[in-house]
Amino acid sequence: MEQYKQEFIDFMVDCHVLKFGDFTLKSGRKSPFFMNAGAYVTGTQLMKLGEYYAKAIHETYGDDFDVLFGPAYKGIPISVVTAVAYAKLYGKEVRYCSDRKEEKDHGADKGGFLGSKLQDGDRVIMIEDVTTSGKSMEETVPKVRGAADVTIIGLMVSLNRMEVGLGGKVSALDEIKERYGFKTSAIVSMADVVEHLYNKPCNGEIVINDDIKVAIDKYYEEYGVK
To answer: Are 199 and 191 in contact, with CB atoms under 8 Å apart?
Structure first.
């Protein structure tokens, strides 16, 4: 595993974004881990987050794209900080764009989008925190493709939860790939997280001990991709 991926796992735990214990997800599933990207709140945390996304996008998709699109709401700050980091790390100017939950009907920036206007020929990378069901893509992909003649290159999320999507057969990321025809990727997967953290100290604490590991294994027996 690349060094920056190991650092990113530690970073998520340190920022209390990735937690282990007993959680009930929006889907109703009981999960031994939970990720909340809303816990990135300081300038330094957001700066680092953008750099991790930029590195993963650069490694996965290269530099041949024009726009980072972050679905509202959590995708908005992620797309902004990643655009900043891309300019800093790779000297490439990319634009950011996000959708609005409610269309704005007044002012110079009225409409359904924030940031850069999508233009014919734009090559777009979608950027999100985590995809469990693919529901946000269901809402935003038609918006993006309907705004201009664009090509969606791929999707980048923080964490591949590696559990079955709504169809019950393949992961949510693979469902998105099959449904919309673009690549999907994550900075790290839960397999990476377990490999890196199991019985190893993170900031002086063991966050995946034997009990948590058993709970994770049991969770994937039920909800993991077969």
So the answer is: no
